[in-house]
Amino acid sequence: MARESAIPRFGHKPQVAFFDFACCEGCQLSVLQLEERLLEILEHVDVVTWREAMTEQSSEYDIAFCEGSITTEEDVERIKDIRAEAAVLVTLGSCASTSCHNELKNQWSMDEVLDVVYGDDAGQIHTIASRPISAVVEVDYQTFGCPVSLPEFVKVVSAILTGQSYEPPNEPVCVECKRNDYLCVYEKGEVCLGPVTRCGCDAICTGWGDACQGCRGLMDSANIGAMLKALTREEAHSIMRTVIDRHQLTEGEIAAKLRIYNNWPEFTLEEAETDDD
Fold it and tell me: What is the pTM of this model?
């Protein structure tokens, strides 16, 4: 979340740098898809480092957009150096903000992971348990999504340039489905993670008729226990009965769906043991 002391009003055209850690760099490529809107942003900033878009680099910058999660000791030192230089540090997308898919490996020991992936060459590779950037350094703004939500990226850029804070939304994707008058995916017999997932994407997936896969991570007050019961209980509304009968998910399978984007800290279904109906 934004630190009030770290929201400067720049007296000059701020210099912007993009950095990547463990990721596919899809968030940076998505930002390029802003096209004309990106050109408008570039009227107010100078981009000095962006590997996906330019060959020039600079060790001096005001704003750092960082994509990807921290998975090596070298990453730890590098993000600390970036933090020391940047007046404003922004996590770009879910890998940076929640560690996303990279943290699936944290279910096993690092030795096991290296052995399975690299076999006889495992000794040449060094890794640590994956973690979001905010687990290593303090961040000023966070954006979510896999890839990053472009409307949210634009909001954060605007907030930075005007010296304002930005709080990521903390409501379920269902709220945006309702606002947009989208048909609930459950009515199509599909399992959707929208009821427990942080909104802010304008329900882009459900808008196209697809189920939310939870790429923005769990909202802070997500009722995992209620969702588990809704997908497994014997007595249910006819809509949910259709979903339950079609998919017949076990608790382990539901946990696996939720775990894809939600492994930091270790994800469990302990909340399911509450007495909430």
Answer: 0.89
